[in-house]
Amino acid sequence: MAMRAAVLGAFGSAPSVEDVELMTPGPHDVVVRPGAVEVCVTDSYALRPGPLAHPPAILGHSAAGVVEEVGAAVTTVVPGDRVVVAGTPECGECFWCDRGEPHQCREIFEGAVRHVARRADGTPISAAGGVGTYAERLLLREYGVVRVPTSLADEHLCLLSCGATSAMGAVFGIARVGLGDTVAVFGAGRIGGWIVQCARLAGAVRIVAVEPMAERRERAAGLGATHVLDPADGDVVERIRDLTGG
Ligand SMILES: [Zn+2]
Ligand SMILES: [Zn+2]
């Protein structure tokens, strides 16, 4: 299928929009038409040599959209399903994926190369992070999409593809915040703002946001932080001890 995609041709060069050919899906693959794509700081890491991108590579790693085509062995989604694209690859076959810990999938850390498209001259094009969402169509594995029956707009839904889920992982998976807990959030930018909301969702009663920028402190308070601290005002640890009775 002919499509356009934002391709990083080489490290050190600017990405450009190219006419490319999407490869034919295999038995375990799905083709997704993205409705909205998130821009994330991880995408800037893919511009530098590292495990994320192997040029030529389609950039971008999170999206929400609609399934258009599925391979013969796919069982969890059908054409027409609305899906969130997982922001990192999940091979479904390695030790970590078998353990139900796809966030440790070897493909993330070993920098596996997945070719998803080709240029007119036949040059294969990979997908940054194994995902590659800055394109008119996405060739993903079945494991790389999650069916979401929802009426949410794609531009909101796509935030579940990477950023908001990072905060959910921090609150529910790592810190395991529970009912009645007190939480301190250091940094109330994009992820910190979501962490504040997730901590509230988890039932935390006291949420302290520590953030040097006034505008972000104000937003954190609006999102559910019960206390906001400017680190310039003195020892943060001491002040949190004061707020929490030690
Ligand atoms: Zn991201
Ligand atoms: Zn894996």
Topology record:
Blueprint: E1 2-8, E2 16-22, E3 29-37, H1 42-45, E4 57-58, E5 63-70, E6 82-85, H2 95-98, H3 106-110, E7 115-118, E8 124-127, E9 138-141, E10 145-147, H4 154-157, H5 163-174, E11 182-186, H6 190-201, E12 206-210, H7 214-223, E13 227-229, H8 236-243
Parallel strand pairs: 4-8, 11-12, 12-13
Antiparallel strand pairs: 1-2, 1-4, 2-7, 3-5, 3-9, 5-6, 6-10, 7-8
Helix pairs in contact: 5-6, 6-7
Bound molecules: zinc ion (2 copies).
One zinc ion is lined by residues 40, 42, 61-62, 87, 162-163.
Task: Explain what the structure shows.
It is a single chain. This protein is an alpha+beta fold and 246 residues long. The protein folds into two domains: 2-160, Medium-chain alcohol dehydrogenases, catalytic domain (Quinone Oxidoreductase, Chain A, domain 1), CATH 3.90.180.10; 163-243, 3-Layer(aba) Sandwich (Rossmann fold), CATH 3.40.50.720. It has eight helices and 13 strands. Strands 1-2-7-8-4 form a five-stranded mixed barrel. A five-stranded antiparallel β-sheet has the order 9-3-5-6-10. Strands 11-12-13 form a three-stranded parallel β-sheet, with helices on both faces. Helix 6 (190-201) links the parallel strand 11 and strand 12. Helix 5 (163-174) packs across helix 6 (190-201) and helix 6 (190-201) packs parallel to helix 7. The longest helix has 12 residues, at 163-174. The chain is elongated, with a radius of gyration of 20 Å. The mean pLDDT is 94. The site of one zinc ion (ZN) has 9 residues, from helix 2 and helix 3. One zinc ion binds at residues 90-91, 93-94, 96-97, 105-107.
